[in-house]
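Board notes (copied after class):
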Amino acid sequence: MRTLARRRSRAFPLFILLALIVLLLTACGGNASSGSNGSSTTVHLGYFPNLTHAVALVGVARGTFQQALGPNVKLDTKTFNAGPAEIEALFAGDIDIGYVGPNPAINGYVKSKGAALRIIAGASSGGALFIVRPGANIHSAKDLNGKKLATPQLGGTQDVSLRHYLQQNGLKTADKGGTVQIIPTDNANILTAFKQGSIDGAWVPEPWATRLIVEDKGQVLVDERTLWPNNAFTTTVVVASKKFLDQHPDLVEKFLQAHVETVQYINSNSDQAKTQVNAQLKALTGKPLATPVIDGALKNLDITYDPLAQSLFKAADSAYELGFLGSSKPDLSSIFDLTILNKVLKAKNLSPVAGS
């Protein structure tokens, strides 16, 4: 019995030692996976291979985002061709931060009852035009009666803009008993349909608007900037999942520092930025833009970190009036969270931006 007791007395400290080792290893593993100090964390970024997402293209190309996030954070990027698909990816947790059009951001906010996302910055303004075929004999809104038009996606940003324009000019779409037919078509097929003459016009973002002009002598009926106060309206915003924003405000701040610096770089180094954007477009789509196209398109686009909140609220009102946001007007009072952006701007001695 005494021999057994002595064995137990020797084993007891060994058991304690092993337990302490397990606890230490568990604690170390927990820190690595939690990312509380940025370690072993991946930031998933979504954007389009599109000129209106130039900040994302340049920020990735120059490594500005990755550098700001630091060596212990991996930047994982995904590209999308449509806003709803990107918002669904955000819902699923596949992206944490994304560049997207205002209408998909609004729809995502409304669909999730405000739980899924916040707009944390702007990215571009303008860059959307209504282009008509030269042979369609369209010189004003009244000439659109009986015409066949296209937009990139039903309920998307340009689709809402076109439908609102028609409404303001006393015209109805075919689905509402009118004579103007709107065909949701992806941008590449819009270009083909335009060249073939199977559509009379299209409300599209850059660079597709300029491609219609350069490649098939399209004519500008409406530069959407002319319809907005100060010729400014939000085209692309930066959204973050609410969960990621709450859990990683430090990473969001680092990302927004890089975002603001990239906006400043593009606006101060237009030639270099243009080259970087086109290189990224070639890498992502297999083909760069022709020089006349990218030169013309960038003239129609403004790069800004200001989300131009009032234009977003006005766009939401238009979408609601057209029946895209449900039967009751949504409350968008909390869709913006610009606290971190304004903190970054203050540190750079830049003026704050408004979310209302």
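Comment from the instructor: The chain has three domains: 1-31, 41-126+232-347, 128-230. Residues 1-39 have pLDDT under 50 and may be disordered.
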